[in-house]
Amino acid sequence: MTPIRFLFCFLVVLISPAFAAESPAKPNIIVILVDDMGFSDIGCYGSEIHTPNLDALAAKGLRFTQFYNTARCCPTRASLMTGLYPHQAGMGGMTRDSGLDGYRGDLNNQCVTLAEVLRTAGYATYMTGKWHLTKFTHDNTPPEHQLNWPLQRGFDHYFGILAGAADYFHPKTLTHDNTQLPEPKDGFYTTDAFVGNALQFIDDTPKDRPFFLCLAFNAPHYPLQAPPEDIAKYRGKYKIGWDKLRTQRHAKQVDLGIVDKSWVISPRPENIPAWDSLTPEEQDRFDQIMAVYAACVDHVDQAVGRLVEALKQRGELDNTLILFLSDNGGNAETGPNAKMVGNPPGSAGSQVACGESWANVENTPFRRYKHFVHEGGVSTPLIAFWPDGIKAQGELRTQPGHVIDIMATCVDLSGAKYPTEFKGKSIQPMEGRSLLPAFANQPIDRDAIYWEHEGNAAIRVGDWKLVRYHRDGAWELYDLKIDRTELHDLAAQQPERVKELAAKWEAWAKRAKVEPSPADGGKKKKKKAGAGKAAADDGGGGSNQRTQGGCRLASRI
After folding, report:
1. How far apart are the C-alpha atoms of 71 and 330, rounded to whole Å?
2. Which residue range(s) make up the domain with 171?
3. Rounded to two decimals, what is the model's pTM?
4. How far apart are alpha carbons 370 and 332 in whole angstroms?
5. Which of 5, 33, 36, 434 is the most buried (most CB within 10 A)?
6. Is residue 252 included in any domain, yes or no?
7. Which residues belong to the active site?
């Protein structure tokens, strides 16, 4: 062989793909979503609840301090799944068709799900847990009404509950793939079953194929239920009361760097009694209620630990991105007196709900709750863990983010192509931004973040937030850099900024199918952009008994 021919053959071998440096494997992606958990309810965000497994993920990953959801169960799920604002996906309200495009109660065909997109990049796609993205959830649902069940929206396998709430021990609407299952017998618990089935799906995945898993716990959603041994761990611990506990959580948050010490903690709403004013019997009742709630969160942490250990044993952990977040803030729907029915509380068939008094603790240090788009309703922890891809460990990220960003992040990581057309239908562009720059502590380039749910509305541009309490409320203006607890309304001092942000929100509302809305009979109402009422008047307290769209919010879970 001549020297020139030898050199040519050597170069061909050198640049041949078979001999090129192996490109990094696509990461597995797991999104863990909990239900109705407040901003401060896990240890690494300020809680006294025992969550060592989540805390360990945070210690070896990142915690976002300004991450947002949409303030309600199925709207957040719609945004998570599609990368769109919920109204754009047809889920601006709940699972009821209001006759308007933004409020169909089902995912529409102008959106694609994470599963449908990640399949194009070769991912196996699995879902376990609460779906809550269709109004058709009952036994014997015909195939033509299963179009928005998980398998029909891109998942290879599914195990979970289709509806929004369920008994933890004997759930209805329990479904495997497209088959609805009978009510399970004794020994079943949703938190454990969702993880167990997820691991079975993962075990059945070929070793050379990446997987996407959405693990959506129904905990700690009403009716709160947990194994008795978990409840016993917390019985008596909450006799400290909500006043002292909220102060303790806030102090821990400041020490952790989760909140700025200059942000004044929001006051206890006037309709929540001081703990010391309660009788011993009342204090014991409230202690028992919160013990059941803590047990639900504790057991989720145990399940996450089981998942992480299984991934480690399978050699999958290091190249798996795990994101952990909540769908909305703590739930105040049963009012200050909460709810505890059944004996013993927390057992199968019992009905326990924390109510406003404990929800105010869960959302420390913020105001308001689930439903509402003040910070207490829309702020969630976000833990991001990925040893092969996130080199920083235990750091905080202050870049604002939103659940719509998860689609863009998954597209960025997977190399998937987000379509402009799918199954012959035009697809709306993603609204979110990839979180990958934030993983590297770089800014996220975005114009604004928007919210609307049942007339509650907000827009955030930079550090400025314009927010409205109910459809008939005046706009309030806050500088979140110095006042994230939303106690100092600047609307009266800065009317031009209010007008500018309100106009920007209105333009978005029209574009994103927020308007027309069911509450105004399909006719767009002109909103006054005026000075807001002093935010600290009620601390977000009595809101849960207001009517909205003809329904009492207190009755809507």
Report:
1. 9
2. 28-446
3. 0.90
4. 7
5. 36
6. yes
7. 73, 132
